[in-house]
Amino acid sequence: LPTGLYKKVLVILHDSILPYMNEPTLMIDFLTVAYGIGGAISLLALNGLFILIHQHNLEYPDFYKKLYSLLDPSIYHVKYRARFFHLADLFLSSSHLPAYLVAAFIKRLSRLALTAPPEALLMVIPFICNLFRRHPACKVLVHRPHGPEDMSEDPYIMEEEEPSRSRALESSLWEIQSLQNHYHPDVAKAAAVLNQSLSEIEDDLSGLLELSASELFDKEVKKKAVDVPLEFEQIRGLFGKKNDIFAEHFSLD
To answer: Among 10, 115, 148, 158, which has the highest number of CB atoms less than 10 A from its own CB?
Structure first.
């Protein structure tokens, strides 16, 4: 099928087609093929697959391996980003997932975050924090004081397609620590949360999934300017000294 047709169908499939079918399982082959195509089509197929897995007992082999492979640099830029992360949040919510799998997702999202725009970072950092709250075994990624000093020695294998062989649990989240020096103050503040112990209550992502660059810009523009004092002593003379000879002969008025 043409790519454009896939997109038109998959955008409406989960809410305008599947609920009205007598046998939604007839769409299994179509959705699994679409999920295997890659890129935006795979992202759009996630909605329909979620309904079949959740409501119709579909067993999809290597589902998480395929979901892991969808994480590439474009994931923070596509217009379907909110939909993808909403579903990824659901898929990674189960407490029965192995620690190595969740650690692989955390590490890959963190590595890709190094080149992500601020609006995506303000969403993905709380997303990662929520994963730590659900899976405490992954906190070793944050608390590893004797990790490699050189980042080139990071044991995590970014190119590995199989999460179990990515060695994510042996690594550390130096990427998030580097984001603590981000040029956007909100991003730096969000990344610094991992320096303290996380609260048990998960962050609400609903208001962050569709955050845009224009919304961030408008927020900054509307901030009230704060007068920053640059001198703690009032200037008395031309060069600021009380008994300066210039103060006797020159005035600042």
So the answer is: 10
